[in-house]
């Protein structure tokens, strides 16, 4: 393949083995076979060569030629604030990239990232600790949501203890949202009266709008309903129940140029639309 004589290749292999600190090949009756060291290094070598080839192609072709399919896993509440903007950004700047969007809970999205079903995931993380292996996009507060004139939404803020025994519609376990709420309730000696378990954000909002139970959601999940006056909200305090929307890229395989470009654009969209997020949640943090 290289067009070089066998002795030259042997010398090259010998130099490589000296640099690697051990034998990479064993001679067999049928040719050459990788040693244990060679076998362990091969995936990294292939990845480096692929990245070098990709870089060369990018330098020669330019960003306008980027194309391919990118699969994104998102929380249902993000369809308007992130899914629609990124679709139109790509349509204008990178028409060769085709999106596939899958809605799921934070737990589902993490599982999809782990097994490589999706390329990019946008789940939640909780608390103020810095998330690992993901990039924080924006931290949002949580709100009690109910019919206009409801008891729990009469004031702009509500203490977490006020949720004691109140009718609630919440995601079912093992949802990370539910686990965090159960943990907060235990710490505050609060009993959560869950009348309905529903992972669907739409169902939670519908139940809250019809007065069946209160929902606990971030503000951006109900922007339209709040504008229309069909839902009233009150921010949870003492303690606050915050969640961070994060961006993760699957580690199950090397990311493509298209995947990396979509990830960069998602970060840009959040920072560009900072005014929307700040308007939606005054104390929010955008890295």
Task: Please give the count of helices.
Answer: 9
Radius of gyration: 25 Å
Characterize the biggest β-sheet: 6 strands, mixed
CATH top level class name of the largest domain: Alpha Beta
Q: How would you classify the helix and strand content by structural class?
A: alpha/beta
Low-pLDDT segments: none
- Total strand segments: 14
Distance between the termini: 49 Å
Number of domains: 3
Average pLDDT? 87
Helical fraction equals 40-55%
Give the CATH H-level superfamily of the largest domain. Answer: Periplasmic binding protein-like II
What's the CATH architecture of the largest domain?
3-Layer(aba) Sandwich
* H/E series: HEEHEHEHEEEEEEHEHEHEEHH
Using the alpha-carbon principal axes, give the shape.
Answer: elongated
Strand portion, in percent? 15-25%
The CATH topology assignment of the largest domain is D-Maltodextrin-Binding Protein, domain 2
Protein architecture, described:
Helices cover 40% and strands 24% of the residues. With 287 residues, it is α/β, with parallel strands linked by helices. The chain has 3 domains: 56 residues, Arc Repressor Mutant, subunit A; 112 residues, Periplasmic binding protein-like II (D-Maltodextrin-Binding Protein, domain 2, 3-Layer(aba) Sandwich); 100 residues, D-Maltodextrin-Binding Protein, domain 2, CATH 3.40.190. The strands form 3 sheets. Strands 3, 4, 5, 6, 7 and 14 form a 6-stranded mixed β-sheet that branches. It has a 6-stranded mixed β-sheet with strand order 9-13-8-12-10-11, covered by helices on one side. Helix 3 crosses helix 8. The protein is elongated, with a radius of gyration of 25 Å.
């Amino acid at each position: 393949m290289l067009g070089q004589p066998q002795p030259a290749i042997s010398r090259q292999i010998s130099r490589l083995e000296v640099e690697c600190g051990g034998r990479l090949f064993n001679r067999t009756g049928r040719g050459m076979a990788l040693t244990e060291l060679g076998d362990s290094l091969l995936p990294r070598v292939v990845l480096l060569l692929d990245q070098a080839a990709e870089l060369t192609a990018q330098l020669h072709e330019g960003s306008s030629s980027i194309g391919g399919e990118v699969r994104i896993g998102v929380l249902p509440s993000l369809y308007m604030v992130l899914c629609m903007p990124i679709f139109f950004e790509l349509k204008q700047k990178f028409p060769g990239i085709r999106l596939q969007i899958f809605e799921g809970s934070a737990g589902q999205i993490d599982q999809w990232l782990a097994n490589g079903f999706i390329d990019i995931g946008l789940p939640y993380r909780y608390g103020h600790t810095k998330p690992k292996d993901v990039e924080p996009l924006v931290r949002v507060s949580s709100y009690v949501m109910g019919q206009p004139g409801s008891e729990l939404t009469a004031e702009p803020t509500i203490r977490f203890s006020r949720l004691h025994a109140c009718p609630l519609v919440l995601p079912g376990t093992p949802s990370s949202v539910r686990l965090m709420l159960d943990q907060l309730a235990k710490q505050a000696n609060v009993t959560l009266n869950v009348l309905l378990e529903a992972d669907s954000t739409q169902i939670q909002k519908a139940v809250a709008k019809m007065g069946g139970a209160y929902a606990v959601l971030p503000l951006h999940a109900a922007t339209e309903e709040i504008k229309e006056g069909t839902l009233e909200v009150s921010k949870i305090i003492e303690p606050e129940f915050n969640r961070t929307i994060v961006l993760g890229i699957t580690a199950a395989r090397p990311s493509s140029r298209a995947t990396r470009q979509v990830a960069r654009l998602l970060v840009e969209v959040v920072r560009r639309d900072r005014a929307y997020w700040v308007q939606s949640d005054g104390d929010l943090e955008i890295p």
